[in-house]
Specification:
Blueprint (H helix, E strand, L loop, with lengths): L8 H14 L2 H5 L19 E7 L2 H8 L5 E10 L7 H5 L5 E9 L6 H12 L7 E2 L2 E2 L5 E4 L3 H16 L10 E2 L4 E3 L7 H4 L4 H17 L7
Helix pairs in contact: 1-8, 3-5, 3-8, 5-8
Amino acid sequence: MKSLAMFGTAAVAALAAVLVTTATPQAANAEGLKVPPAALVEKSASHREVAIVAGGCFWGVEGVYEHVNGVLDVTSGYAGGGAARADYESVSSGRTGKAEAVRIVFDPSRVSYAELLRIYFSVVADPTQVNRQGPDVGTQYRTAIFPQSASQARVARAYIAQLSKAHVFKRPIATRLETGRFAPAEAYHQDFMRKNPAHPYILVHDRPKVAALRRMFPDRWRG
């Protein structure tokens, strides 16, 4: 992942061609897979909660959740590992134990944590890929859920078990529940999809996910 300003016109065209040829089927055809609702949904009296998930490149994960009604704020960053601080260069080395992740602030009275996970498994990430998402390879691109409470842990654990038992996916779910602090990413990563809609990576891998969200979850869509 690089900022578009770092490429010349020819380089951007070449990168776009490479990304198209390496696109995953889901990113290429934007089909997604609408998974069943979670059987376990725990109600919350709060109007403000935090969820943290890792689903590959944080540009697209942030871009999807920014369009979910009930989500108040989304921040790209790094989660997992032992260090409290992180930066893009060190995390990209794959040696920090951290994953690219997003911090989602949401109103549980408008969208439940279980529904955020349903969107995660439906259009955000392929939970069967190990230490990668599409063309991005490395432990920093793993799928992971970072519960912020005992309630979130129960819901996430039960949902993964539910989807696994129902064989919703053709391969085993590799997504794991993890712990670890969240550190915001650099400013140029924040709202990257909104600020760079013509970036070749965004066009090939992330805009289809947002389109799938709008098509598959119209009741959750926020333009």
